[in-house]
Specification:
Order of helices and strands: EEEHEEHEHHHEHEHEE
Number of strands: 10
Largest sheet: 6 strands, mixed
Bound molecules: adenosine-5'-diphosphate, magnesium ion
CATH topology: Rossmann fold
Structural class: alpha/beta
Shape: globular
Number of domains: 1
Length: 232
Amino acid sequence: MSQPGAAIIKVEHLHRIYHLGGEDIHAINDVSLELFSGQMSAIVGRSGSGKTTLLNLIAGLDEPTEGAVWIDGEPLNALTEQQRLALRRDRIGFVFQAFGLLPLLSAEENVGVPLRMRHLSARERQERTISALEWVGLRDRMDHRPYELSGGEQQRVALARALAARPQFILADEPTGQLDSQTGRRIIGLLRRLVTEHDITVVIVTHDPQVMEEADVVHELHDGRLVDTRYR
Ligand code: ADP
Ligand code: MG
């Protein structure tokens, strides 16, 4: 593996405590870690270990009870809500377990949705959309709606949607969670190629052993704590 780049995401002594019905749930408990550019990082752990909470904190979708998240040297807590919104729009791509496609829109339209928030010409939007769909091997399916696509194809549309926006990094929450292992492997292969061919930093939270095998680094959470970090 080549020399890793700078820490693009840094998490320092992060805590997130939820208060629910008089009970405190320490979903993230003193987690510090660094995620490097040019890598595919995995954050793993059982269901309930705090993976989604951590991803939301990294994306600035949730606020830590204590501690800090730094993106590219900038502390998230120093940004206004507007700036955080811009960060997510311009630099982060999201991929979800349930694909997150809009059911009434075609694959092409789904990929184009986030591009509408940008100042791009219609032509540029279309070019980016088609080349992203081509890249995931679905150019011939671009008129299909989600229900006319398999799960794996829907996830490939979601990857195309993330790619078309040309983000600096992609955060994926259990991207293979609803797929059989062979289809999951194909999605992992595409996530890997986002790193190598498009220089996008990929962070996957998962409990899929196939992702753990493929990732450059695996951070393991247990009950909200970081218990292990393994490099390949
Ligand atoms: P994972 O993604 O690893 O399955 P989560 O981050 O979703 O885990 O959840 C971690 C812990 O925090 C769990 O015990 C969960 O029940 C709790 N939790 C998550 N979100 C909330 C919330 N909004 N309110 C209260 N508790 C929550
Ligand atoms: Mg989760």
